[in-house]
C-alpha cells in the first residue's frame, strides 16, 4: 500500500478564484525519495501542505478528491497526531524558531519534549542530530540571534530529531552556501538510507538529480511530468514548464545537437564523466 | 561539543546562588508577601528598610544592575509624581515654605506627607521588581506548568516576550530601509513621528503573516499532540525548607496586618 495516495485531487484556497491544485493523482511509496520541481506558483508548496494535512485542516478552503495517508483520508486525520508521523521543514528559517528557548540545544529538543520522550533519550538524540547537522558548535547559542543559514540548520535538526517516518522538506537550502547545501543533501541521503519517505521541494536541480528516486514537475497546479529521476530530468520538455535541467543533461543535449551524441543523456557529473571518456 | 553544558540538563538547574536557586513559586510567595506587607504598613520606617533589603538581595544575587535599571526609573517617577501631586494638593495656612521654583512655592509639609506614600509604593514595587529581575520568565512558566497551567498559555507568555524583541528589530529594519530611500527619519519629534507612523502598517502585516508560519512551525514540532510533555530543563521542586519559608513570609505579612490594627 502506498504511504500517500492522491486521487483526482483539486484544491482552492479560501477567498481565491483559481484552483491551487488541479486534478492531481499520484501515489507516494514508502521509503522513496521524491523531488518536486517546477515554476514558482505552480503548486509545489500547496501539495506539501496537502500531504502534511495543513490543507484542509489549517488553511480550510475547498478540497475535492481523495487524499489517503496510510489508508486513512486526510480529513479524518487529527492534524496534531499527523505531526508526530510527518515531519515538515519549510522555507522561511526565521519563523521556524520557536522563540521560547534560549539555547539551540533546547530548541532542537522542543519537538521531543512535546512528544513526551524521556529526558535521557532527548539528550542522546539531540546530541547526535546536532553532530549530524554540524551545529554542535552552536548548541549554547541563542537561536533567536542566529543567521538565516544557521537557523535553517537548527529548524532542520529540530524536525530530524523527532524521527518521523516521513519528511516533507520545502527548500531547506535556500539560505545555505554550496558547502552547507551539500551537507544538507548528504543528511537527506542518510535519512533515505534509514528507509524514510522523503518529499523534497528544491530548485537546486543538480542536487535533485544526484539524490532523488522520482521527480514530479508541477505547473499551474497540475503534475506536468512524473517518473524516475533520469527519465524526467533528461527530458528537455520540462523546461517549457518552468523546471530546470541539470547542467550535465544540458551538456548531453548540446553534444547531441552538435552531432556528437553521448551513449545516453547524463543527469549528474559523475554519470557524464565516463560517458565523455567512452566517446573519445 | 561541550559535555559540561549537555550534562547540566541531566540534573536540576542550579546557579549556586541561594536566592536564584529558590523555586520560582517560593520566590514569588516571599516577594508578594513582603510587597503586601508594605501596603499594609504604609509607613516610611517599614518602607525604607524594605527598599534597602530588596537592593541587598539583588546585589547578593548578582542581579543588581538588572534590578536597579528598572527600580531606579520607578523610584524617579514615583518620587516626582507623588511629591508634585502632594504639593498641588497642599492647603496654604499653617505650612512651612521649603523651596521656590520659578515662583512656585513648595512646602515642607508636602514632602513629609508624601514620604510615607513614596516609601510604601517603592517597597511594594521593589519586591515585585526583585522577583522579576531574579527570576527568568521561562523558569516561572515552567513552575506554573508544574502546577497545572497549560503549555499553550506558557508558550503565549514566552513567545510574546520574544515577539516584542522581534517587532522592535523589524521596526528598526523598516526605518533603516526608509532612510536608505531618502526619507528623513532623524530630527525633531514631529519628523520622527512622521517617519515612524507609516511603518506600523508593514510592521503589523509582517507580524500577522509570520504568526501563521509560526503556528505551522509549532505544529511541526508536535506542539498540540495530546501527550504528557517532558522537560529537558528541570528546576528542583520546592523543598520543605522552601515551603516553610513561603509560609513564614505570609505569616509575617499577616503579622503586619495585626500590628497595623493594634498600633
UniProtKB/TrEMBL annotation, chain A:
Locate the ABC transporter domain: which residues? 4-245
Q: Does the keyword Nucleotide-binding apply?
A: yes
Which subcellular locations apply to this protein? Answer: Cell membrane
Recite the UniProt keywords alphabetically.
ATP-binding, Cell membrane, Membrane, Nucleotide-binding, Translocase, Transport
SMART domains, per the entry? AAA
- Please, which domain of life does this record's source organism belong to? Bacteria
Asked if Transmembrane helix is a keyword of the record, the answer is no
Q: Which GO terms describe its molecular function?
A: ATP binding; ATP hydrolysis activity; ATPase-coupled transmembrane transporter activity
Q: Which GO terms describe its cellular component?
A: ATP-binding cassette (ABC) transporter complex
Family statement drawn from the similarity comment of this UniProt entry: Belongs to the ABC transporter superfamily.
Q: Can you say what this protein is called?
A: Energy-coupling factor transport system ATP-binding protein
- Source organism per entry reads Pelolinea submarina
UniProtKB/TrEMBL annotation, chain B:
The cellular component terms of Gene Ontology attached to this UniProt record, alphabetical and capped at eight, are: plasma membrane
Q: Which compartments is it annotated to reside in?
A: Membrane
Where mainly located? membrane
CDD domains (alphabetical): EcfT
Task: State the InterPro entries in the record.
Answer: ABC/ECF_trnsptr_transmembrane, ECF_transporter_component
Going by the UniProt record, its keywords in alphabetical order are: Cell membrane, Membrane, Transmembrane, Transmembrane helix
Its membrane topology, per UniProt? Multi-pass membrane protein
TM stretches of this protein: 20-40, 46-64, 71-90, 110-133, 244-262
Name of this chain's protein:
Cobalt/nickel transport system permease protein/energy-coupling factor transport system permease protein
Which organism does this sequence originate in? Answer: Pelolinea submarina
